[in-house]
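Recap for those who missed Tuesday's class. We walked through two folding examples back to back. For each one, the amino acid string is listed first and its predicted structure tokens come directly after. Nothing is annotated here on purpose, so try labeling regions yourself before you check the end of the notes.
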Amino acid sequence: MTALIVCSGSVDDYSCYEKYFKLAKSVICVDGGAKYVRKFGIVPDVLIGDLDSISDEDLEYLMNMKVKVMKYPSQKDMTDTEIAVDYAVDEGFKEVIIIGGIGTRLDHTLANILLAKKLLDKGVKCTLVNENNEITLIKDSIKIAKEEDVKISLLPLTNVVEGITTKGLYYPLNCEDIEMGSSRGVSNEFKDEVAEISIKSGILIVIKSKD
């Protein structure tokens, strides 16, 4: 089952997100992300957060729609997004997609990418998406269908990722190691209709990007 978490980061081209809503069994709205679910025309299953960035109008709308509200104190030890992620895990979801988790606040963006590592440790797949990027963490393998004008970047999240092997990419890797801080895996290209990436150990950030 897939949960879609809508945060309050940057969202501009709404058409880019339709496919993710179709995958979702449940929609979790995080605080100010309410402005986006309204524009998407979606009624979320739950609103989570300290409610410091949601407008009065959006809050009233969601309450009128009988959306479950889980309000937390503003002084807390985790972000609203982490609370929403934990909620999704507790509800038994095995895949989480986060939109609005990439924005102008680099600290929040990095924290959300690292949340994907927390989910990976729990056996839950997490993907962060915006109009130009799709970010996934792996510790085994992944297959990615070719998309026009899309680049693939591979970045270690551990000190070293060992045994990286790729198929279907223009610049292949054959059971090779990449250390954290190396740019070797940046900006590869599709050669075949499907690319396959596998690793033997470590955690690898896989990013689909387009300009």
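Example two. Treat it independently of the first, because the proteins are unrelated.
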Amino acid sequence: LSNIRFAGDVQIREVQINSLNGQIANVTAQVELIEIFEDLFSPFITVSIVMRESIDYINLFPFVGEEFVDIDINTPSMEKSIKGRFYIYKITDRSYTKDKEVVYTIKAISEEFLTDANSKISKGFNGNIGEMARAFILKEGLNTKKKIAIDPTLNTTRFTANYWNPSACLTFLASSALDVNKSPSFLFFENTDGFNFKSVNAILTKQVYQEFKKDNYVRTT
């Protein structure tokens, strides 16, 4: 189908699990549901994937907490697709629905989370806040290859990171930054476009590109 039928409608192109021992499995056919969570107050995207399968991937790999999942999905009628690699950190809600068939939920988070969790920064910084934010996203910590969007900042700051991870440094910088209107309203977050160090004022002035209407009808497909 080439048109959106309802809010949240997506086409799942590929879902692939990569295990620690080098095994790769295309599990697209076993995916029941994918939920991608973006939060203005969270530095990383999280993902929930509901699986229904009878191959027993959990024991086949096996899942030991160091697997990645590659996702490629898109919204019908829109050219943009959502692609990314996510670190699997938990398997939940496991239950057997019939003989040899199991349903469970894979919980995953952006792969940059691992870099962030394992990076501890202990030194002083001084300069323009926007420029420092760019350095923390690209060089000092996250080392991401994703797109970044950083709004101009008017002020400078000086601080010392006391064994902070990069996301903690970026959150601190956001709390101190002033936009071009001298408003202290910066946020650091990730969305499907990449990493953002943005002013709330700038976000609110963007043009609305999609509207949905709520009704009382129930859609099963």
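Answers for example two:
The radius of gyration is 20 Å.
The chain has a mean pLDDT of 87.
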